[in-house]
Design brief:
Elements (H helix, E strand, L loop, with lengths): L2 E6 L6 H14 L4 E6 L3 E2 L3 E2 L4 H9 L5 E4 L2 H4 L3 H15 L4 E6 L4 H8 L3 H9 L4 H12 L1 H5 L4 H16 L4 E6 L16 H9 L4 H4 L4 H13 L10 H8 L4 H8 L5 H11 L3 H8 L6 H13 L12 E6 L3 H11 L4 E2 L10 H18 L19 E2 L9
Parallel strand pairs: 1-2, 1-6, 2-5, 6-7, 8-9, 8-10
Antiparallel strand pairs: 3-4, 5-8
């Protein structure tokens, strides 16, 4: 059985994601199982996911994915490079994944792989000159291969390059496959039959749920509508800005250095913004510069809030299953037979894991408790939800290809 990995956030799951699943199966075979490594309650742009992770995973397995495994928290709050290394680490550790399919604007796998071979030393030179990671990567690749460098002008291409580099660095046997993005551009604010996740999030935050219906598979839309009705969405940083400020103002510049990473002075800028700011959004805007892009600032602040040091390993120490679809049981059996790490299906299993893993497991539980405070309904703010969750299991049929 072919098992193809997909790295995702599904924030929320939309028509473009369904197309990616369907096109992956068209390329690899209709019986291909899809296993997603998905960010948990916090996402790579440095924000709270708009829906809780088990609900987003439920969307996915009702709309084309067969198994959803959680991405490590440190990887979800990392740069494209760390995000990719953590995701490839998850798929590799499953021991049964044969392919990795990712979207790209160009659809040119050879070009993306050429760009991935660029030396990290060259990237570091440009970062030391004051460029962000993304800009430094683009300049370094363009120095060696101008055609490949041009690919880095698009965010999905950038992540695709990071996946290829992570596969190469790990010596992984997983084979990459890229599907050309079809639909609205990344972060587009315009409606499209295959809209961007950014468009859908803005619509939800603005109270325009109906605007999402046409751009999401029916099952995914139903999950979103149900979560809005019960007060589980939209989760937003603004809802717990005061709690975040109270924690962040306790931190010295030296303490912030643990979470900002690097030696380029971001921790001093964060400290000044935290002292003067009155909201999470305001702190982010005050700290943001060309050298310190908004996503990096947001990730650093969330790492500080959640106590995830910048140098925390992005590689997984265990594999947590969030949802199981029609073919997911077969994938789960294969994974449990071949996985190189402990597989967590129900929270009770966590207590039986080695002592060396317990600190990371407790941090995951705390992160989920802090996420709960960002949900609209006060009834959902109680702690301990992490230990009451089990994977969503979908017994229905796989969806019709898009």
């Amino acid at each position: 059985m072919k098992i193809c990995g997909i790295v995702a956030e599904y924030n929320p799951f939309h028509a473009g994601h369904a197309y990616h699943c369907a096109e992956t199966r068209r390329r690899l075979g209709a019986d291909t199982a899809i296993a997603a490594a998905m960010s948990g309650n916090f996402v790579q742009r440095g924000d709270f996911a708009i829906l809780e992770k088990y609900r987003r995973a439920a969307m996915a397995v009702q709309c084309g994915v067969d198994l959803v495994v959680e991405l490590p928290l440190a990887a979800a709050l990392s740069s494209a490079e760390g995000f990719a290394r953590g995701a490839v680490g998850v798929l590799d550790a499953m021991g049964c994944v044969t392919h990795l399919s990712f979207g790209s604007e160009c659809g040119d796998l050879d070009g993306l792989r050429r760009a991935a071979r660029c030396s990290r030393a060259a990237v570091r030179r440009h970062m030391d000159a004051g460029h962000s990671y993304a800009a430094a990567m683009q300049r370094a690749v363009a120095d060696e291969d101008p055609a490949a460098g041009a690919l880095l002008a698009s965010p999905n291409n950038t992540l695709g390059i990071a996946y290829c580099a992570a596969l190469d660095a790990a010596g992984s046997a997983i084979r990459p496959l890229t599907v050309r993005r079809a639909g609205a551009p990344h972060d587009s604010a315009q409606f499209h039959a295959r809209p961007s996740a950014s468009f859908l999030r803005r619509a939800v935050l603005d109270g325009g749920l109906d605007a999402c219906r046409a751009g999401m598979p029916a099952a995914a839309y139903a999950v979103l509508a149900a979560e809005l009705a019960r007060g589980g969405a939209p989760a937003r940083a603004a809802a717990c800005s005061q709690a975040m400020l109270a924690h962040l103002r306790r931190l010295t510049p030296e303490a912030l250095l643990r979470y900002a990473g690097g030696s380029d002075g971001l921790h001093h800028r964060l400290h000044a913004a935290i002292r003067d700011g009155t909201s999470f959004a305001g702190i982010c805007q005050a700290a943001q510069t060309r050298r310190y892009p908004l996503a990096r600032v947001r990730r650093a602040l969330l790492r500080a809030y959640l106590d995830v040091p910048a140098d925390d390993p992005v590689q997984p120490a265990y594999l947590r299953v969030l949802a199981i679809g029609p073919r997911g049981r077969a994938v789960l059996r294969a994974m449990r037979h071949s996985a190189r790490l402990p597989v967590i299906i129900k929270p009770v299993q966590e207590k039986r894991l080695p002592d060396a893993l317990q600190a990371g497991l407790r941090r995951d539980a705390l992160a989920d408790d802090l996420y709960a405070l960002a949900q609209p309904a006060e009834a959902l703010w109680a702690g301990g939800g992490h230990y009451r969750q089990s994977p969503f299991v979908w017994q229905g049929q796989a969806p019709t290809p898009v």
